[in-house]
Write a structure and sequence with these properties.
Strand 10 and strand 11 form a beta hairpin. The chain has six helices and 27 strands.
Length: about 475
């Protein structure tokens, strides 16, 4: 695998129209089952209704084929708790997941999207008790098969214990797919990890993975995150019991990619999974080779940081005594210089330009692929965002949001574990031989070909 993944077609740039009722903040992000639309759930500026401060909720849809942005009004009086995730069961049927930690509840709002009237109606809400209020993560790998997985830790008062629960992905089928806990299986898996030769530990801060009838959790070595081991819990229908094991993952491609850095800096990571393919983003510094611009920029940053730390730690008594005379001018400008070095970006101002690494894991062969992906620098600032979601074919949609959310750049990266489709190969060949047939005015450069089923009935049940 090369260090550069080729996107399927050219990235799409979509301008978000500035209208008075446009969403002020976006809470969650999802893609349709076909991969042809991107949805963002958000709320507008608060307004006063009957003497109370309320929000108006929106669902923004971006059509990647025609580059069109549509707003849907969400007809819900109140959304209880914190909005966490949005996932789709069918073409126009979605579930909004929220957490109400005051009542220790997980709420599933069943939303029906009306494309003709541009509205979203809620036809049911389900409340489920869940006590994992710390390090809470949700696994959506088996949504089409009937379940989602909740994992987290209880409060300090309850002992900070690991709690795992599987609930029905569709609230209307909660009787067909009953809830059940996996605390005993997690305890057995944690015991197997500690008895391993590498002395592994469960990493609860990462999204759990679900594929077929197996649940996978990342392991850490020496209290550091590692891509080398997965803890797997599999349900055996013959014995009607859960089997736990430690699975080794071939992470040699990631080791080759980061060996020049010496280490990987995971400042912010997002994980998505659909089917047998999992994707994860990792932000870290670019490798700085000696006698290059990046190398000397890094050395200058280290020198400036050392000077600032020396002034703050050693000379602060002088700044305090001199404050009545300069009114804090020296201390104020020193802190401005320090903040300028750090910059509003994820990495310091003088560090090598940050890079985005994407990791794909095959849950069937337990192989891993990693590569650098070029993105806009503004998306890695404190206000910008990088969003990913996986399609049923295993491709990933990479959305780069500007700091003000006024522009989105969306691109598709194909699944590295599947051979390229014949239609894509044929299109590339024709495009190279007859480039005039693919002018932008005639045919958009970004053509999505992914197809998927929109089955609304779950097909998998562990309890059978």
């Amino acid at each position: 695998m090369t260090d550069q993944w080729r996107r399927v077609g050219k990235p799409i740039t979509v301008q978000i129209p500035n209208i008075p009722d446009s969403p002020l903040t976006f809470s969650t992000y999802s893609t349709s089952l076909s991969g042809k639309r991107v949805y963002l759930f958000g709320s507008s500026q608060p307004h006063v209704t009957d003497g109370l401060l309320a929000h108006r909720f929106f669902l923004m849809a971006i059509d990647l084929g025609v580059k069109n942005v549509s707003y849907y009004s969400v007809n819900i009086d109140e959304i209880v708790g914190v909005v966490s995730h949005l996932y789709f069961l069918a073409q126009d049927l979605a579930i909004l997941l929220t957490f109400d930690w005051d009542e220790q509840k997980v709420l599933q709002y069943r939303l029906k999207i009306d494309r003709l009237n541009k509205t979203v109606e809620c036809d049911g809400v389900r409340r489920t008790t869940f006590h994992g209020e710390r390090d809470t993560k949700v696994g959506f790998g088996a949504v089409s098969q009937g379940y989602i997985l909740l994992i987290g830790r209880t409060s300090v008062e309850l002992g900070s214990e690991c709690t795992v629960k599987m609930i029905a992905s569709d609230p209307y089928h909660s009787e067909q797919f009953p809830d059940f806990d996996l605390e005993d299986q997690m305890t057995e898996l944690d015991r197997a990890a500690r008895m391993h030769t590498e002395q592994l530990e469960l990493m609860l801060g990462f999204v759990p993975l679900m594929y077929k009838e197996s649940l996978s959790f990342w392991m850490s070595m020496d209290r550091k995150f590692s891509f080398s081991y997965l803890g797997v819990i599999t349900y055996d229908h013959m014995t009607k019991e859960f089997v736990t094991k430690i699975q080794h993952v071939d992470s040699s491609s990631l080791d080759r990619l980061t060996e020049s850095d010496g280490k990987v800096h995971v400042f912010e990571s997002k994980t998505t999974q659909n089917g047998s393919t999992m994707w994860m983003t990792m932000i870290g510094p670019a490798p700085a080779q000696s006698n290059t611009k990046s190398f000397w920029r890094q050395k200058l940053e280290q020198l400036a940081m050392a000077a600032c730390i020396f002034c703050i730690d050693v000379l602060h008594p002088f700044f305090l005594r001199f404050k009545p005379y300069d009114k804090g001018f020296i201390a104020k400008n020193l802190m401005k210089f320090y903040l300028w070095i750090m910059s509003p970006y994820v990495l310091p101002q003088f560090e090598p330009l940050p890079t985005l690494k994407m990791v794909a894991v095959d849950l069937e062969q337990f192989k891993l692929c990693a590569a650098h992906v070029e993105v806009l620098k503004s998306t890695m600032s404190t206000q910008g965002q990088i969003l990913i979601d996986c399609t049923p074919r295993g491709d990933v949609l990479l959305t780069e949001a500007s700091p003000q959310c006024t522009e989105f750049r969306i691109s598709r990266i194909r699944n590295p574990f599947e051979p390229e489709r014949l239609s894509r190969i044929s299109r590339k060949t024709v495009e190279n031989v007859f480039p005039r047939l693919f002018l932008e005015k005639r045919l958009p450069p970004y053509v999505l070909e992914s197809k998927s089923s929109t089955t609304t009935w779950p097909t998998w049940n562990l309890i059978k």
